[in-house]
Design a protein that fits this description.
The protein is mainly α. Helix 2 runs parallel beside helix 7, helix 2 crosses helix 8 and helix 9 runs antiparallel to helix 10. The N and C termini lie far apart (78 Å).
């Protein structure tokens, strides 16, 4: 009897060790995949954090965090209920499609970056709704009921997030080749949760930073009041810098994904040329060669990403956009 109990306890201990090892493996893989996804998806994450605060412009301060909460919940739903199962099915039945899909996502980032650069020079043609009074709210939005406007803004943000989240999940999936299906699912879920909490937590802090600064300016004294005023005056500049960094990051990340994807599909000349220039820059620089090589590589990727975006832009506006519009008009309940 006692020997049977001891054997049972040994089995339980062995299972506990196996479970602990599995958890350690999950944590390690999640950390590894998360770091790779974060580095490759830097443009997506930064741009998301820079753009999302715009969705709360024009609302009362007490609605800002609830709106961000709704967007974050929609983002998490996108990742866990739709994109995660889709990514697992793709990885199981058609792993060959991951690289082309990553390249399509990279091309989308290049297109978005191209539009942002064009907008800087007044050539973008986007954001047609007028804002005559310059308050950050279009005149068409100003006449809508607050609840209708809130629902519209949240829906728009969640639809945009779906595309960005799909790219993040695809990048993560590409780092999980060779792992068991359940482990891929857990890691994708953890990365999706971590990205959502990180991005929208940062967005919440950014959105409420000026309120916090105003509070310090009103209630503090001396240095505290000066810090509060500095925060209030500095936030518009910070958001502008963040938006610019996001634009550049989208171009360099998108360009890198497209070039590296082409290399994996057999078109190696662009990747080899860029790597050759990067290696030459590293060899020619005695001080901080790694940093110089990274800057050179990022700059080349960004320029090539801008070129990709310029090539994709007419295709998107003249063929893909109208095709999607036609499909939407044929959807049940829609009118042409």
């Amino acid at each position: 009897m006692s020997s049977g109990l001891i054997a049972l306890l040994d089995d339980v201990a062995a299972l506990a060790k196996l479970a602990a090892a599995s958890l350690d493996d999950v944590a390690a893989q999640a950390a590894k995949a998360g770091s790779k996804a974060a580095s490759k998806a830097a443009g997506i994450v930064i741009d998301d954090a820079a753009v999302t605060p715009r969705y709360v412009v024009g609302f009362a301060a007490d609605r800002e965090l609830p709106i961000i909460g709704k967007i974050a919940a929609g983002s998490l739903k996108n990742k866990l209920l739709f994109l995660l199962p889709g990514a697992l099915l793709l990885g199981f039945f058609a792993p060959w499609a991951i690289t082309p899909l990553l390249m399509l996502g990279g091309a989308f980032l290049c297109l978005e970056g191209w539009h942002k650069v064009a907008d800087l020079f007044g050539q973008g043609g986007r954001g047609a709704a007028a804002d005559a009074d310059g308050d950050g709210v279009s005149d068409s939005d100003a006449v809508k009921a607050p609840q209708d406007l809130e629902n519209e803004r949240v829906g728009s943000a969640i639809r945009t997030d779906f595309i960005l989240s799909a790219e993040i999940m695809a990048i993560t999936l590409a780092t999980l080749t060779g792992l068991a299906l359940w482990l891929q699912a857990v890691v994708l879920g953890l990365v999706g949760l971590g990205m959502t909490v990180g991005v929208y937590g940062a967005v919440a802090l950014i959105v409420k930073a000026d309120d916090f600064g105003a509070l310090l300016a009103r209630t503090g004294n001396g240095v505290v009041r000066a810090v509060g005023r500095g925060i209030v005056l500095g936030m518009p500049v910070f958001l502008k810098v963040l938006s610019t960094v996001g634009m550049v990051a989208m171009l360099w990340v998108g360009g890198h994904i497209v070039i590296h994807g082409a290399y994996e599909l057999g078109l190696g000349a662009p990747e080899l040329w860029v790597q050759g220039v990067t290696d030459a820059a590293r060899a020619a620089t005695p001080l901080a060669p790694g940093l110089v090589a990274w800057v050179v590589r990022a700059a080349i990727d960004a320029v090539l990403g801008l070129a990709v975006g310029a090539l994709v832009a007419p295709l998107a506006s003249k063929i893909i956009g109208p095709a999607f519009g036609r499909l939407k008009s044929l959807w049940p309940g829609k009118t042409p």
